[in-house]
Amino acid sequence: MFKLAAVLSVVAAPALATGLEIEVSGEANGVVKIDLLEDVAPGHVAQITELAEEGAYDGVVFHRVIDGFMAQTGDVEFGRIEGGDMRRAGMGGSDKPDLKAEFSDIPFDRGVVGMARSQNPDSANSQFFIMFKDGPFLNGEYTVVGRVTEGMEVVDAIKRGEGRNGAVVGQPDVMTSVTVTD
């Protein structure tokens, strides 16, 4: 009986997404396509996918962008271009629970997408970042969720922030639409 229930639950479970298509506007304009790695970080990919399907990422800015390092976005609580609080962008998340770390052996190379978190490894929620360059110091310390497969030139054009923290001053670039792809 247990085996049948387990098989039926797998068959009845929704299939995880295989990617995201992100329309970016601002200094950068274009589409970024990301291959999500559900076999590497199934919990994180499921949460990102659910948020994207709900439209939670639409209109969210790139609030922290450090030249030669990464572009961070995904603050669905405070990071909205309309109705957000840019002074608090980067401090929020979704109403979904924080996620347990799913660290892997995949290196943080250029184009890798990782989950942002606080000092607590089990605090990732909705924010993610895209690497401009290799960042081996992140390996095994953050959860890898995907890779950019198209549009890295759009990522490279995202408006840079200032100072050590990379806070974007003025009008930040925005994810106008985030769509789940097959």
N-to-C span:
33 Å
| Count of individual helical segments | 3
Residue share in β-strands: 25-35%
| Assembly category | single chain
Radius of gyration: 16 Å
Query: Quick one: how many beta strands?
Result: 8
CATH superfamily: Cyclophilin-like
For the largest beta sheet, what order do the strands appear in spatially? Answer: 1-2-7-5-6-4-3-8
The shape, in one word, is globular
Topology:
Blueprint: H1 2-12, E1 19-25, E2 30-36, H2 42-53, E3 60-66, E4 70-73, E5 112-115, E6 128-131, E7 144-150, H3 152-156, E8 174-181
Antiparallel strand pairs: 1-2, 1-8, 2-7, 3-4, 3-8, 4-6, 5-6, 5-7
Description:
The protein has 3 helices and 8 strands. The chain starts with a helix and ends with a strand. It has helices at residues 2-12, 42-53, 152-156, and strands at 19-25, 30-36, 60-66, 70-73, 112-115, 128-131, 144-150, 174-181. By secondary structure, it is α+β, with helices and mostly antiparallel strands. The chain has a single domain (18-163, 175-181), classed as Cyclophilin-like (Cyclophilin, Beta Barrel), CATH 2.40.100.10.
Short description:
The chain is of the alpha+beta class. The chain is built from three helices and eight strands.
What characteristics describe this protein?
182 residues, 8-stranded antiparallel β-barrel, alpha+beta, Cyclophilin
